[in-house]
Amino acid sequence: MNATRFLFHTRSLRLPLLCVAGLRNKSLSSGPIALHRFLSSDHCTRRCLCSKPVFRRDPSQSEESQNKPDKTLISYDNLFERAALDSKNKATFSHVLDVFKNKDIRRRGHVEFIYAALKKMPEFGVEQDLAIYNKLLDVFPKEVFIPRNFIQRMFNHYPRQQECGVQILEQMENYGVLPNVETKVLLIQIFGKKSHPIRKYQRLMYWFPRFKHVNPYPVPRELPQDPVDLARFSLHRIAADLNAKVTVYQMPSSDHNEDGNLVCQPYIVGIQSPDQREVLAKHRPNRPVFVEGPFPLWLKRTCVYYYVLRADPLPPEEKVEEPVDPERNFFYPLELELDYDRDLGDDEDFDVDEVEEGPVYAMCMTDSGDRDTLAKWISGLQETNPILGCTPTVFRLDSGPSEVQSCTVSDHPEIEDVLQGQKMAQ
Amino acid sequence: MMAMVISGVTRACARMHFRARALTVQVLGLQSLRGFRTQSPSLAFAKDIFLGKINKAEAFPYPEISNEELEEIGQLVAPVEKFFMEDVDSRKIDLEATIPPKTMSGLKELGLFGIQIPEEYGGLGLSNTMYARLGEITSMDGSIAVTLAAHQAIGLKGILIAGNDEQKSRYLPKLASGEHIAAFCLTEPGSGSDAASIQSRATLSEDKKYFVLNGSKIWISNGGFADIFTVFARTEVVDTDGKKMDKITAFIVERAFGGVTSGKPEDKLGIRGSNTSEVHFENTRVPVENVIGEVGGGFKVAMNILNSGRFSMGSASAGMIKRLIEMTAEYAGTRKQFGKKLGEFGLIQEKFATMAQQAFVMESMAYLTAGMMDRPGMPDCSVEAAMVKVFSSEGAWMCVSEALQILGGLGYMKDYPYERYLRDSRILLIFEGTNEILRMYIALTGIQYAGKILAGKIKEMKKGNLSVFMEIFREKLQNSLSKKIDLGLSGPDGVVHPSLTDSAKKLEENVFYFGKTVDGLLYRFGKSIIDEQLVLKRIADVLIHIYAMTAVLSRASRSITIGLRDHDHEVLLANTFCAQAYFQNNYRLVQLEKNSPENHDASIKKIAQQILERRTYVCSHPLDRTF
């Protein structure tokens, strides 16, 4: 009860933050995870509270019990490492579990074994596999830990085992694995209906589904492998315009040139919407456009980089408001000839100070952020935006990510170069 | 033979009487023929409503035609009706998606291709009222009605209202006889109502003798076989400061000029027998004499043509519904279910009442408007015509659907004409300006008028002028204390028959509060009201219903006064309609109040925005799960 209330409080604090972050930054993908982490910390407090009396009763034993698992963990670690020699996958992992289960009917040392297994799960790549978690729970002997009378029920019955069960659920939570009915049945069989693991299970089932869709811009679990597809996906994600069209200006390829050297052609994938094209067509050629980047975009654990083509906002004195053409609509006037405006009492807009930014005309992604590649992008854009042919293009590039990786950081962190569009076209 | 000759003679005599009148309506240049009442073109009735007043003189008494005209129209209507009953096979026209040549020539012989063309050019020279009367008959077949309307309501209307004498004498005779068919070419692939996206271009040749026209037009009614096109294209115009501008110009283009090609006929949901196709112009040479109006003045021409062509939809829809009532009443009177005739069931009776009421209202509105338009001095009835169009197209769609419902499954079968009527009537809500666009026109035209008149008062109020506030407060107090709204429709010098007094009071109350509401809305929104489309829609709806109430009251009053047959039925219909419209109007007016709980516009907009943002239905499936 306490914990739920606590959760509720924090939920009200945390959620708006998450939502705002989610809306502002579309690359945020770990909304639920952050929350899980938080939830787990809550559970820790509760668990400590529960187990305290046990430790207090026999401090020496508790110390022993704290040390002991470490030792045994090592021995069970070995079990997994031996299996790992073969190959680290789901099959070997579940084989180890089977071996342990069938070795001893009493399942001696199963708590230590489970702790060891939990630790090894990411290594075997099964940390998000519900079947394995259920199998792991199945290691517990059934019905032994269920309290049988009110005294047992009142006190913490088999605290170590219960805590271990909670720990399994906790790890599931951290990896965003939703328990299923089988988990519940197992937990009831092992610990009984009102045990701590069952409570933990209930809390999980309460919150998990509610936050499943908390991120309005979800990133798929599996990102596309092909870099061009990934770029396409990422660009659509940033553009946030359903009319925007992705153009692949250059496919990745590697070829041998006349000297026999390997020449790699980077991919160039760009995106532009009809609205952007329209705004660009109205750009004044005497003002430069800028190619800027790279900017990072996080998709779960993957980071990709993109470049933008933009311009500075027009200074206020150069802005011209186009008057509404009175001969535009055959059917009704587009503007009323009245000289009074909306009443203040009906102006429901908020008073917002807006910082004007320059328009972004197009975006692209490439695996090599050098000027030549980006110049190819611009010349590709020229086909649909002829105005770029007579507009000076300024490249303002930070040292790209690839350059950092290959340790060829240029001495100038910012390369600025003015290129006449006409020249580029050739 | 003998009878025909006699009828021809009487017709000619009758025409002598009203020829001048018919001409003044159509031809501005000949207006002086009438010789009296040269008032300035003014929009009569609708605009006053926005100020909370009723211009009695415009709508009362209900317009009449002379006995000669009545006789004349009777003689015209009879053969047309006979022709439509006997020689037009609507089912075949619909199935084969074409009007047979024999039917076409029959229509031409009847003179239906030149109903409003003056007699001196070989047309029938009929007034708007009589045009509306013929529309009732031609609506028996949707395809023919649309073909005729595309020819004369829009196709040749440009020549008729804005053409010079030379153009008229050159083109109108052949158009009137139906030897040449006209089409109206405005819509382009990228442009519906937006003049800015018209891409067709006409360039003046070097010798300045002709324009070279290039461009494509889509969805042109009669486009496949028309010989004369009214085409709108961009031309370069030098304005007063010497700046070159692109402006729209109207041209008369003959197919014979060359370079005119038509696409294949479009396959449509309804009015399948009418021809709709693309028309392409490729380097078509159009002589400069063929410009309608002046170069660069095409926008006004287009607007006038569109505004003048709409009023007849009211009588056409009413004619259609009247026939549907006959057909379905026959069925309801013979078919038995559970030992009872269909007509004895309340739910079926309701449908008949709805249809009769709708037809009655449409008819009243249509002939009131036509009568107003026939008055000398070219009154601007475009708002009234738009109201007739909106009301009658929506009423027609609803009534056809109800008629089909009376027949149940039978109505759905192709063996019966109901499904064809349903398909045909759907276009009424779309063409000649969609109802949405016309609602904007109706509301904005009135708002513009009222806004200018009320500007002084509103500006004083915004300044916080106490005396203005006091004045308003005093007025409000007076209204709430005396609670008597009298706009003079009933009472000692009233124009409405006493048996309709209650309805007249309701109308007056609606008009009065409508005026107040418009006043308030102008104060609240100012010129930004143009962006409040949901508000404008309600304004238009209230106005349409006010106009409808006025029309039925005027008509029913006249019927009682002169003792028309079955006028008690008219009174019943009028009172029922007014009572219903009154409640609907009150509801809309309440919705227009500030912070009204009945108004859900904000939520409606939000729903739409969320859907359009994602371009899909947003909700999860009801069977979806999260665990």
UniProtKB/TrEMBL annotation, chain A:
Gene Ontology biological process terms in this record: cell surface receptor protein serine/threonine kinase signaling pathway; innate immune response
Subcellular location, record wording: Cytoplasm; Mitochondrion; Nucleus
Entries under Pfam families matching the protein: ECSIT_C, ECSIT_N
Keyword match Cytoplasm: yes
Family matches, as InterPro entries: ECIST_C, ECSIT, ECSIT_N, TPR-like_helical_dom_sf
Domain (ECSIT C-terminal) ranges: 273-398
Domain of life: Eukaryota
GO cellular component: mitochondrion; nucleus
Keywords in alphabetical order: Cytoplasm, Immunity, Innate immunity, Mitochondrion, Nucleus, Transit peptide
Chief place of localization: cytoplasm
PANTHER family: ECSIT EVOLUTIONARILY CONSERVED SIGNALING INTERMEDIATE IN TOLL PATHWAYS, EVOLUTIONARILY CONSERVED SIGNALING INTERMEDIATE IN TOLL PATHWAY, MITOCHONDRIAL
Family that this chain belongs to: Belongs to the ECSIT family.
Protein name, entry field: Evolutionarily conserved signaling intermediate in Toll pathway, mitochondrial
Automatic annotation (TrEMBL), chain B:
Positions of the Acyl-CoA oxidase/dehydrogenase middle domain: 183-283
Source species of the chain: Erpetoichthys calabaricus
Keywords per UniProt: Acetylation, FAD, Flavoprotein, Membrane, Mitochondrion, Mitochondrion inner membrane, Oxidoreductase, Phosphoprotein, Transit peptide
Family the UniProt entry places it in: Belongs to the acyl-CoA dehydrogenase family.
Annotated coiled-coil segments of the chain: none
Gene3D superfamilies, A to Z: Acyl-CoA dehydrogenase/oxidase, N-terminal domain (1.10.540.10), Butyryl-CoA Dehydrogenase, subunit A, domain 2 (2.40.110.10), Butyryl-CoA Dehydrogenase, subunit A, domain 3 (1.20.140.10)
Main localization, broad class: mitochondrion
Protein purpose: As part of the MCIA complex, primarily participates in the assembly of the mitochondrial complex I and therefore plays a role in oxidative phosphorylation. This moonlighting protein also has a dehydrogenase activity toward a broad range of substrates with greater specificity for long-chain unsaturated acyl-CoAs. However, in vivo, it does not seem to play a primary role in fatty acid oxidation. In addition, the function in complex I assembly is independent of the dehydrogenase activity of the protein.
Name used for this protein in its record: Complex I assembly factor ACAD9, mitochondrial
Gene Ontology biological process terms from the UniProt entry: fatty acid metabolic process
Acyl-CoA dehydrogenase/oxidase N-terminal domain ranges (all copies): 73-179
Annotated compartments: Mitochondrion inner membrane
Domain Acyl-CoA dehydrogenase/oxidase C-terminal intervals: 296-443
